[in-house]
Amino acid sequence: MNTLQNTAKTLLASGKGILAADESPSTNKKRFDKYGIPDTEDMRRKWRELLFTTPDIEKYLSGIILYEETLGQETDSGMLFPEFLAGRGIIPGIKVDQKTEAFGKDEEVTKGLDGLAERLSEYAHMGAQFTKWRAVIRIGEGTPSAECVAENARRMAEYARLSQQAGLVPIVEPEVLLDGNHSFARCEEVVANTLKVTFDAVHKAGVALDSLLLKTSMVLPGKESGEKRSPQEVAEATVRVLMAGVPKEVAGIVFLSGGQTPQEATERLNEIVKTAQAKSAPWPLTFSYSRALQDPVMAAWQGIEENTAKAQEVFKRRISETAAASRGEFSAE
Ligand code: 5MM
Question: Which of 8, 20, 28, 260 lies deepest, with the highest CB count within 10 Å?
Answer without folding.
Answer: 20
